[in-house]
Design brief:
By secondary structure, the chain is mostly helical. The protein has a domain of 85 residues. 54% of the residues lie in helices and 10% in strands. It contains four helices and two strands; from the N terminus they run H-H-H-E-E-H. The termini are far apart. The relative contact order is 0.08.
């Protein structure tokens, strides 16, 4: 480990070294999970839009990660989203009676915890 600031305590130097891992994982996430590469657009506006959307998605994943950790959920945001994919709502309509009802499948305890952590329960 090479440092140029010698007045920092050893603990801070080690912390700064491990902080680089956060940045490296950010770039890895942008490249893999969010598919920022390759950009298959040729018009400048579309390239900028693609990168902007990837940035917003990363911001959303970071926010989810923070909320999950704050609420004691050790699951990654991607795993949490995969867990929530099984939730669906069915809408039944009786055209003769002009009535309709909507029913959502019951959430698992894990899904409820994710909903609560992300403040999605009403």
């Amino acid at each position: 480990l090479l440092i140029t600031t010698t007045d920092l305590p050893k603990e801070k130097v080690v912390k700064k070294y491990f902080d680089k891992d956060v940045i490296e994982k950010s770039f890895e996430s942008l490249k893999t999970t969010l598919s920022i590469q390759p950009v298959r657009h040729w018009l400048t506006g579309r390239v900028k839009a693609h990168i902007f959307i990837c940035y917003l998605a990363y911001l959303h994943l970071s926010w989810m990660n923070m909320r999950l950790k704050t609420n004691g959920i050790t699951m990654s945001p991607v795993k949490a989203l995969e867990n929530l994919e099984t939730i669906y709502t069915v809408k039944l309509t009786d055209e003769k009676a002009s009535a309709s009802t909507t029913k959502t499948v019951p959430l698992t305890k894990e899904q409820e915890a994710i909903y609560k952590a992300l403040n999605l329960l009403s």
